[in-house]
Amino acid sequence: MKSTRLLLPSLANYESKWLSRDVLAGIVLSALLVPQGMAYAELAGLPAVTGLYTSILCLIGYALVGPSRILVLGPDSSLGPMIAATVLPLMVADGDPTKAVVMASMLAILTGVIMIVSGLGGMGFIADLLSRPTILGYMNGLALTILVGQLPKLLGFSVDAEGFFPEVVGFVQGVVQGEAMPAAAAVGVFSLLLILILTRVMPRLPAVLVAAIAAIMLSVGFDLAGRGVPVVGALVQGLPHFSVPLMELQDIGVLFVGAVGISLVALADTIGTATVFAERQSERVDGNREMIGIGVANVAAGLFQGFPVSTSGSRTAVAERAGARTQVTGLIGAGMIALMLVAFPDLLADLPQATLGAIVIAASLSLADIGGMRRLYRQRRTDFIIGTAAFLGVVLLGVLPGIVVAVALSVAMVFKRIWRPYRATLGQVPGLPGLHDMTNYPDAQTLDGCVVLRFDAPLIFANAGALRDDVHEIADRNPQPLWIVIAAEPITDVDTTACDMLEDLTVELDEQGVRLVFAELKTSPRQKLEQYGLEHVLDSSRFYPTIRAATDDFRSTTGQEWTGQHQRD
Predict the structure, then answer these.
(1) Which of 56, 150, 369, 464 has an alpha carbon within 20 to 30 A of 540's alpha carbon?
(2) pLDDT digits over 376-408, tens only?
(3) Same domain, 331 and 477
(4) Do 440 and 537 share a domain, yes or no?
């Protein structure tokens, strides 16, 4: 049952027997959060320790108000490139990490405020702005760009380039010119293979943690730092302090644009992940409360030197497999990370940077869904084209323009389906109740002098002309029909433009001797026709409760019968 508590909702009706499971799951979770948080912070162009600050505060923030019992938030591989694409252009040439942290913190606060306000305003539905094909294309493009961007780190060198193709060229040139470090490449490739193999062969094992421990052992055993292999180094000791990020107003405007895109991706990701795990526990997802929960988590992170966060399906799965029952798991995980920062800041000092690159690359591979694109190609070529366009938008234009392209494509497809909706002429099929699309049943029986036209969309300004043209085309046939019946059950709305069109159309048809009637029009659109004052042309005699009632009235009025290849018994 969904809790109505405003604070700590996941602790409603808490049972003492859950505590041991939550504590154990929290300890297991923290072991995964630490290396991932550091890796995703560097993916966002920020110091590794900020990933740990972010993890602590977002876990606490979501536990306070988040509705899900086991959803785990934190730094995310899909948001890292978006954060970097928003923050780094504002850095000019100084490359000051302190300034980058301030901007990323403000970005998190803006993201949080957007989501909280949207959640309070009941706008959880905006996650639907990203259709499945656009999400597939966007994530595949994101996976490729992340992979290419992390390849130099995997091999122990760096590339000073921006954009997919410059990074590819820079990586190839670096390898050809011998910039790759054999020792770093060895530990990086080893870490990546270990993560991929363990994830596939032993999915319950925390592969990232195992790879991090193995890499540290190799680093210490072979003195990789002494051989010039870049390592994480000692973290800043202590907990993050409260700080309100301050900056110039024009920079806030740029960050706001990025925050909108990040909010949309984070919400879509969270709703999808929350739905999957809620179904396993027979619970329902409240999109508005999820928005508020994610928003609070982002604000909390932003006030303590953190950056924007989202939900992680992999970390949530780890928590679930470890026995997590409530957000106590997240609180324990946050506490364990805080303990490490206070008491053991040198714990990961010997972790090779190449291993962090391997962790990010493994995450990028999990974002990709080539099989999903193949399925789109088989099932619906239009959706495949949309997914491909979203993919190319990310790869060719960049991460932030890519999300704009993805949203624009989704909205455009919705508009296209309303602008040019499916229309069908209906006929009677012996042995089947009702009337059916004659495209599927070309031998269906028809009524001489009566055409039944179904219009599968709300009737608005964008498609009113399409209905008018269809009706005129039918009315101009030879022989001319006496009645045109609009099967209006799919018409859920009518606007001013559509009402003006119907008024003119009805008058024109009456002058031609053709009667326009409607069947199965819902109460709401019919009331709107009355509100627009169309009773003088569309009186009650033109509306029928069913299509059969309309055709029966036509038959009794004209004496016509159903005819076709199959004569009616």
Answers:
(1) 464
(2) 999 888 889 888 988 998 899 887 787 778 778
(3) no
(4) yes
